[in-house]
Design goal:
Layout (H helix, E strand, L loop, with lengths): L8 H4 L11 E2 L12 H11 L3 E5 L5 E6 H12 L21 E2 L4 H9 L5 E6 L2 E7 H10 L6
Parallel strand pairs: 4-5
Antiparallel strand pairs: 1-6, 2-3, 5-6
């Protein structure tokens, strides 16, 4: 039997685009400050028709994410705990247990992370610095561009 020497199956495997191609860059993102009032953040979420945004310190360090769901806790605080919200800050409601994605992660792996997670957006980081954000919708854009492979 003759065997051809050549490239292995692994070498033939398709390389997919990275998240960086589809993410929204930080310069185009709406972001919040931990010191902003929660009322102001809710107004921005409603006005800009977004479902949430990263929370950054003045230095640009990512410290949390604020989502519509996080903001819904305000209703519970008012209705059940009789807590006024005038002085409540974004930092009182933001999620700090963050799941992030690296800019060089391939879109197939990113799609799988969305499928196995309830989150709608991931902050994209490079060495712990926010460089952008990728959402489920951004990954859907990649679905149009992905090429199928033959086995």
């Amino acid at each position: 039997m003759n065997f051809k020497s050549g490239t292995s199956q692994k070498a033939k495997q398709k390389d997919y685009e990275t998240v960086e191609k589809y993410m929204v860059h930080v310069s185009k993102l709406i972001t919040f400050s931990p010191d902003q009032t929660i009322a102001e953040a809710i107004d921005i979420i409603l006005e800009k028709r977004i479902s949430g945004a990263p929370v950054l310190e003045r230095s640009g360090k990512l410290v949390g994410m604020l989502s519509e769901k996080d903001c819904l806790r305000l209703i519970i605080d008012k209705a059940y705990h009789n807590m006024p919200n005038e002085h409540k800050k974004v930092s009182d409601y933001m999620t700090t247990d963050l799941r992030t994605i690296s800019y060089d992660l391939d879109i197939v792996t990113a799609a799988n992370r969305f499928l196995t997670s309830p989150v709608r957006r991931f902050p994209v980081v490079e060495e712990d610095v926010l460089i952008g954000q990728i959402s489920r919708r951004d990954i859907l854009k990649a679905a149009r561009d992905i090429e199928i492979t033959t086995w």
